[in-house]
Amino acid sequence: MQPDPEAESQAETSPEEAPADPSPQGGRGRSWMSRWLYAAKVDSWPKLLVPCLFGQALGVSAAGALDWSALALGLGFTLFDLLFVVFLNDWGDRRVDRIKRQMFPDGCSPKTIPDGILPARALLIAGLIAGVGALGLAALGQFAMARPSLLPAAAGLLLIFVAYTLPPVRLNYRGGGEWLELVGVGVGLPLFHLYLQSGELWTRELLMLPGFALLALCSAVASGMADEQSDRRGGKRTYVSEYGNRAARALVERVMLFAALLWAVSIRLAHVVPAPIGALALVVVLVNWRRLRKLSPQATTNAFEAQRLYKHYLHQAQWRSAMILVVVIVGLTLLGWDGQ
Hints:
Blueprint: H1 5-11, H2 32-40, H3 46-63, H4 68-92, H5 94-103, H6 120-144, H7 150-165, H8 177-198, H9 209-222, H10 228-234, H11 239-243, H12 245-270, H13 275-295, H14 304-334
Helix pairs in contact: 3-4, 3-8, 3-14, 4-6, 5-10, 6-7, 7-8, 8-9, 9-12, 9-14, 12-13, 13-14
């Protein structure tokens, strides 16, 4: 897909140089702290915190005990990783964010750079500092906890994001962003935390990852729904901008069902939780799948409120089911359950 000529002409003006939005929604009237909290997008943090805790729980199961220092270090790493991703993603997407604000001035939330909440340079510097912090904690864990592969694994996770949205690779602009998110959020991050908590890489707990990874893929595809037209105009090739809203919803709904089936098989084979508890997690997925399917005909292109609710049900399916497993896995392991 070729970028729209209008988008190319808009790209000639640097987003940093364009005037900030003087409306109350923009940076004017906000305190320094509120600007950074807004830019940090705290509401989106479960997207990485849930994989972190899921991986930590699998590590607890593999080790047969909870290492509190590994949990604390893992949460610290994830916090830095979150800020690295959020700040640099806004920096990398500033052009298409500006296009969306121009197309839908009243139809989307304020954008950090286009609306003058924070300058692009500040986000770039903050994101790089967060990345250094994440690598620093990984280095500490590698040497303090005898995890020789921890720092390379952390660097790999950060590089996945760099390949996702930053030049020169920018796979999220070339049609591969959703698959990269599957690898990073659905597999890489939980595996990192499993290793941090247990010191093991090849355990039966790995059988729990495929279903979780497919739900991460669904989330990645659905995240582009609200940006379909602005991404298309800006030359950003996501699944939604390439194949359309209807095809994206069809993919999400089918893969979500397959993920539930795969998770059912995985739970049975891994023996990480009792089957009835595993069934409860699957019920959460299926109930939210049914809600999502019922809403689907309304979540069409530019139907932003319906799309928001559609993604809410998807996230409930992914995050709540995973957190049920987290609580049960850790609780049963501490009580001495061996999975047999």
